[in-house]
């Protein structure tokens, strides 16, 4: 099952596979990429995503300094430095049905002697998200989070704007994280995979983006300000989480 979930770029159309030249030769950087299809992330169709060298995809519309905090798809968020080796690359491809990002032979900053990591995140047009792990040379629990967060999973948030009490004419941006799905990183090993499957639509709710972007009944308590910002954003819930080990 793990082999079925891993997307082999060798078998893909080579014209569709792109090596990101900037991200493959730098550290702690991120770059915006446009998808060829609408990917339903927590019920919202998105085409603009941000790939980061640190093993995750930022899904927020507004890029800020705290990309690792929330609104991410993270197969393995850690302090990776692709610029360490010429063999390290960040590549991606898009065939209209799935968008895949692969962190290929990347090393941890300051822990290069531990070996290289190869893993990927696949975003399917039907809303499924698959994390594939090909080479994980050390236990994730032993990776230090001192210089960079270490985690794997999904997170989303919504944003509101409040006027500052001191300067009424200015607006302060507040980000509320309302859902996070964290993986048990002890199960992230070489030749393993995780598949997130969205729950089917709840017919009792009005789905603003159509049936192909399923949502379910909200079960979280969130600040009441959310109702004025985007009530549909919270009507999405990730369903089944499958872990396939070697």
Give the topology, please:
Elements: H1 2-5, E1 18-19, E2 30-41, E3 44-52, E4 56-58, E5 72-77, E6 89-94, E7 98-106, E8 117-124, E9 129-135, E10 151-163, E11 171-182, E12 192-198, H2 226-229, E13 238-244
Antiparallel strand pairs: 1-6, 2-3, 3-4, 4-5, 5-10, 6-7, 7-8, 8-9, 9-12, 10-11, 12-13
Q: How does this structure look, described?
A:
- The protein is mostly beta strands and 246 residues long.
- It has one domain.
- 3% of the residues lie in helices and 41% in strands.
- It contains two helices and 13 strands; from the N terminus they run H-E-E-E-E-E-E-E-E-E-E-E-E-H-E.
- The strands form two sheets. It has a seven-stranded antiparallel β-sheet with strand order 1-6-7-8-9-12-13, with no helix packed on it. A six-stranded antiparallel β-sheet has the order 2-3-4-5-10-11, with no helix packed on it.
- The relative contact order is 0.17.
- Belongs to the plexin family.
- Keywords: Membrane, Signal, Transmembrane, Transmembrane helix.
- It is a single-pass type I membrane protein.
Keywords:
single chain; 246 residues; mainly beta; seven-stranded antiparallel β-sheet; six-stranded antiparallel β-sheet; 2 helices; 3% helix; disordered C terminus
Structure summary:
This is Plexin domain containing 1. With 246 residues, the chain is mainly β.
> What is the average of the pLDDT values?
78
What summary fits the major beta sheet?
Answer: 7 strands, antiparallel
Question: What is the element string, with H for helices and E for strands?
Answer: HEEEEEEEEEEEEHE
Total tally of structural domains: 1
Question: How would you classify the quaternary structure?
Answer: single chain
| General form | globular
Structural class by SSE content: mainly beta
Determine the number of helices (DSSP H or I, runs of at least 4 residues): 2
Low-confidence stretches: 202-246
User: For the largest beta sheet, what order do the strands appear in spatially?
Assistant: 1-6-7-8-9-12-13
Strand content: 35-45%
Count the E strands.
13
Indicate the percent of residues in helices.
Answer: under 10%
Task: Report the C-alpha radius of gyration, rounded.
Answer: 18 Å
Give the termini separation.
Answer: 9 Å
């Amino acid at each position: 099952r793990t082999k079925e979930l891993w997307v082999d770029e060798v078998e893909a159309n080579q014209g569709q596979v792109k090596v990101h030249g900037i991200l493959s030769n730098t550290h702690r950087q991120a770059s915006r990429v446009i998808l060829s299809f609408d990917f339903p992330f927590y019920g919202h169709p998105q085409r603009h995503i941000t790939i980061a060298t640190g093993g995750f995809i930022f899904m927020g519309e507004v890029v800020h300094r705290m990309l690792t905090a929330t609104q991410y798809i993270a197969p393995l968020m850690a302090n990776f430095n692709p610029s360490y080796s010429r063999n390290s690359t960040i590549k991606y491809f898009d065939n209209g049905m799935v968008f895949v990002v692969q962190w290929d032979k990347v090393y941890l900053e300051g822990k290069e002697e531990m070996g290289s990591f190869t893993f990927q995140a696949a975003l399917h047009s039907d809303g499924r998200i698959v994390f594939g792990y090909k080479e994980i040379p050390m236990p994730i629990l032993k990776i230090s989070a001192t210089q960079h967060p270490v985690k794997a999973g999904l997170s989303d948030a919504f944003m509101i704007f409040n006027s500052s009490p001191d300067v009424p004419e200015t607006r302060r941006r507040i980000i509320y994280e309302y859902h996070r799905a964290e993986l048990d990183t002890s199960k992230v090993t070489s030749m393993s995979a995780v598949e997130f499957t969205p729950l089917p639509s709840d017919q009792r709710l009005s789905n603003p983006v159509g049936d192909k972007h399923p949502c379910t009944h909200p079960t979280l308590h969130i600040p009441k300000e959310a109702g004025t910002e985007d009530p549909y954003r919270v009507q999405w819930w990730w369903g089944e989480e499958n872990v396939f080990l070697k």
